[in-house]
Amino acid sequence: MKIAVLPGDGIGPEIVAEALKVLEVFRHEGVPLQTETGDIGGVAVDRQGDPLPSSTLALCQGADAILFGSIGGPQYDTLPREMRPERGLLRLRKALDLFANLRPARVFPELAEASSLRAEVVANLDIMIVRELTGDIYFGEPRGITRNVAGERVGTNTMVYSESEIRRVAHWGFQIALQRHQALCSVDKMNVLETTQLWRDVMMEVAPEYPDVKLTHMLVDNAAMQLIRNPRQFDVIVTGNLFGDILSDEASMLTGSIGMLPSASLNAAGLGLYEPIHGSAPDIAGRSVANPLAQILSVSMMFRYSLKRPDLADRIDRAVHVVLQQGVRTADIARQGEAVVSTAKMGDSVVAALQAS
Ligand code: IPM
Ligand code: MG
Fold this sequence. Notes:
The protein is of the alpha/beta class and 357 residues long. Helices cover 40% and strands 18% of the residues. The protein is built from twelve helices and twelve strands. Helix 8 packs parallel to helix 9. The longest helix has 17 residues, at 12-28. The chain is globular and about 60 Å long. The structure holds 3-isopropylmalic acid and magnesium ion (MG).
């Protein structure tokens, strides 16, 4: 199993180092894992003058899975758009056709108190957001800032979806719902936007292929509200790129810490990129305080979805539960006055729990 490792910027390298410890445990047990590291994002701009160097793209194309840290930092915000770290990630998603983005939001019972909502509102919350990742206003043309006839600047982006793009992610939504509680909520803005009228039409056309899944529809503004009002009404949410970007950040906070949540971005061939949903957190980078659990849980998703070793994924998930039960806490998930551990200590605790399993 060949894994491309892209630590990236900010806290990326620190938390990826902890995830690699987990891989090392399995390698010792005889699991044939090969890793190779590549540059992406700001670090790639600094070293190679390109946020996605061709060597990194080639490395990813030849791999079975990609383990990604995080990218970005304030020092890159004034670069031309093409040179910004985010472009590296967006180009990689597009080049590998990673259209299906799975973003779970689960409340760990031990951390229910950490949510900004009352514990009883989020207890046992378990939502999966399926976000389309290679289309929509993120990639639509025309785009840019131009001048109109009056000489005034005009900004343009284009929200666009073809029915095949919608259909393939619809299937992911239904499939995932089948494996969970058979409830799929499709989120759109069909009362205003034609693109999302088509989105809703295609969802309804696919639905008869999945008679066991209950499909519902919700407008995105209402969905944003319902996620706060009564988040447990949701099982699987399927939505477009932009709405999914926003709703997945919102859903992550229901769980208490964005530092706990992994994600998977998959193409039709099963190649996947696995990354924590939090960003590079430049404010805490290099201080060994970041929570590596989202990165470690991304390794779990990697074994489940790309490397087809659900047994190893289950072991990682259980090990994370064990360390939470033991009360091991990084600063982001600690309650006031609770003792906190470093990034490395958290990683070591997971390793110890894994070795004991
Ligand atoms: C995400 C991020 C990215 C996105 C940025 C970094 C381009 O916010 O993965 O959610 O908008 O997709
Ligand atoms: Mg985002």
